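Format notes (please read before filing issues)

Several people have asked whether sequences and structure tokens are stored in separate files. They are not. Every record keeps both together, in the order shown below: the sequence lines, then the token lines. Line labels are part of the format and must not be stripped during preprocessing.
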Amino acid sequence: MKAGVVAVQGAFPEHVRSLERALANNGHKGSVITVRRLEELEQVCCLIIPGGESTAISKLLSRHGLHDQIVRRAVEGMPIMGTCAGCVLLAKEGDDEVHKTGTELLGLVDMAVDRNAFGRQRESFEAPIDVKGFDSPFPGVFIRAPVISRTWGRCKVMAAHSGKIVMVRQDNLIGLSFHPELSEDTRIHEMLLGLL
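Then the structure lines:
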């Protein structure tokens, strides 16, 4: 088993560490690699698109030839998780900021997102999040976090905070407003591996 983390921009080293711990916790034999090129994408059986700056990540995915191939692998059933900026990119609909900046969404999940809806960097916060299927709250870390403003179709809400949707799942795809890699809790990374 080889898990991948998109490493063109953003907070990917923390996801690598979390995935390595999740593999060990579940007794899986496997490794985690960073994905910057097509040949690396073809090696992995699941993928994380991390937080960072969604416009920059979008442009770099296209420049590296990864955008269309990530869509292809998702449609073929590969588990993919997008956190924060990665969640924005998974969406089928973006807000005015997405349109203004020319951010090219992957368009995979039946949801609309509102970038930076929880505020700027100085308004970052932590909060316990009740995730469907978890027996105790998950420590949510929100940094310039988007909000999932609307869902439809096969997209299911997995968690909300203050009445706002912060986690969804659609078949083999998971989107989160927050940063699970910034906590010691690996349950969400284990959820991704559990989709294999």
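For reference, the curators noted about this record: Residues 58 and 146 are 16 Å apart (CA to CA). The radius of gyration is 15 Å.
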